[in-house]
DNA sequence: GTCTAATCGAGACGGTACGTCGAGTCTTGAG
DNA sequence: CTCAAGACTCGACGTACCGTCTCGATTAGAC
């Protein structure tokens, strides 16, 4: 005997996520207010508060829908080095897209608010980390024939992705593209057991 | 004929910077309001607005006093590899200190506010970048006897520092310490012209 | 061919009226919300709106059941003066009872809302006025042997009841009891044609 | 050494009181919201909350300024009976004026809210009661040469004013004018020591 | 010693957004 | 068709800070 009464409106959910996304890109994080989202989505404020605790939760919801593909590891299409380089380009490009702006804003906000940081970590970053480790492991395996252990894999991921996030978050733009290919090669070299 | 009347009070300046620092560490960035700083410093709001444009400027002021030494490159004390590893440890530790928290908050806020980002870049990050490049160049020179060109040096700095900032800003804590020594050696290897 | 489906549930009607009554006495008029009544009566809001237009209508419904006896003119039991005095005591006491509180609240609300005022007038006050005039006329007739004309009777009712309502509505409590007996005698005196 | 800084703006105070008055008369009590008053007065909501706790306090403030003259007892101008009758006319007319509407609304609200009732009593009704007793005593003294005792005077005031308030608050309009002169004469008769 | 001009505290003010409450309407599925 | 449950829009609530402003009181050169 399931419960009675009206159900949550999916169209409202989508309208809110889109409104939040749009506002963030157009006006920035500070100007993305709950009232603004409500107005733009044509929805009552109370309806937003019924389903989300804060604008950060809304953006996190929006991110989950959009970022999965933007940061996904593609199927093999060339040599491991080529595929890895291509992925780094994809990550660098991602931060220019709307979904990337959302992630950037949420990362920024996470520095300012411990709860938001925890929510972002749980809701997105750790999952993405797992996907990154899996994607990187697959490429390394294609390259060397074996999978590095967890710790080593994590270090490689940090060396590989760290510079991109660093340039984006600290200097406001992805790194020069000519950094990416050497970084990919370097990582694959480090992944060969003898170099460990 | 110079002007008359009282001059800017240094004690007020210090009280405001300390109040801002303390509030940030104790309550977080969002709770660090101009009104709160004014109250805690025992100062009128107007007095703050007379000398600073926003709380970001206050924190930037506070950062400039504290971060210089926290992120400074030390004098040679061992082999280049040892010195470089030691510096990476220093950077990682810096983000645990109050001054590091301020930088982290300002970096976070910079993701959310373009003006704040520009101010942080101009007021701190670019200068620190220059110091980092100089410090790294000096160590490489000791190691290889020659200085890499500007672009290459920048890439090396990104590879070296990126992972630390990445772990701090994305995962909320500095990387495992055992990542740092390999990263230092790696960077020095990459700096030798033949490996490029 | 009469209509199908269940009819209005009497148990719900009673539950709602009681819930409204209770809430009014316990929490006051403002805190007596439709939502509160619905919750307390274990009934859906919509069900209330199906049968009543507003909380005022609910309270009016509740009043009609209780106030009739509370403000009723009793059968002759003594001299006209005694009976009139007794009635005044009954009216004064009525405002201390729950039903009196409801009337007081509805009178209060009527000052603030023209529609509510009209509803109260139509639904209760004019009927009560008629009962009061009839009761008073009966007593006067017993006393003087004749019935005063409509206008005169109305004035007498105003002089008689006015002070009680005045004390209750303006000063929050019924008048001192020793006002009531002189008022009763006075009214009867004024009712004798020669004193008019 | 009095305090420094800007003082409360008198023009704002007046603008708020007028806006509240106007809204009450034009739209009624329920539609007289703090936000509406603020908008109409061209004032920030916070400014209202700084000086008044609720709209009731605002209206009370407004009342104090306007009701004093509207309900004042005039100087002797004729016989005591004439003056008393004139005063009753003044009271009955008062409830048709804006200030009278305010009093009526506040009386209505007082039935619904104990705190509001207490505030109204303290802030206005008890003072007005004192003025009424004094005014009535003066007229009686002119008529009979002596002043009745406190209790008796109170009863006379209740008999005199009760019917007017009763008709206004219960039936929504002042009593027929021909009630007033008999009521005045009656009261003076009752005030003569032998009739007591 | 004035004089004079800026600094400083205190805080009033117009705003914007917050997060909450209840109103009244509408939708769903059970009985 | 009625009902409980509750999603929905709407308007107002009272609060927090924002950034601007005004008001004396204080202070430190210039004369």
UniProtKB/TrEMBL annotation, chains A, B, C, D:
An example of a Pfam family matching this protein is: TetR_N
Q: Which UniProt keywords apply?
A: DNA-binding, Transcription, Transcription regulation
DNA-binding region(s), residue ranges: 33-52
Looking up SUPFAM superfamilies in the UniProt record yields: Homeodomain-like, Tetracyclin repressor-like, C-terminal domain
The record places domain HTH tetR-type at 10-70
What InterPro entries does the entry give?
A: Homeodomain-like_sf (IPR009057), HTH-type_TetR-like_transc_reg (IPR050109), HTH_TetR (IPR001647), Tet_transcr_reg_TetR-rel_C_sf (IPR036271), TetR_C (IPR011075)
Keyword Transcription assigned: yes
Q: What is this protein called?
A: TetR/AcrR family transcriptional regulator
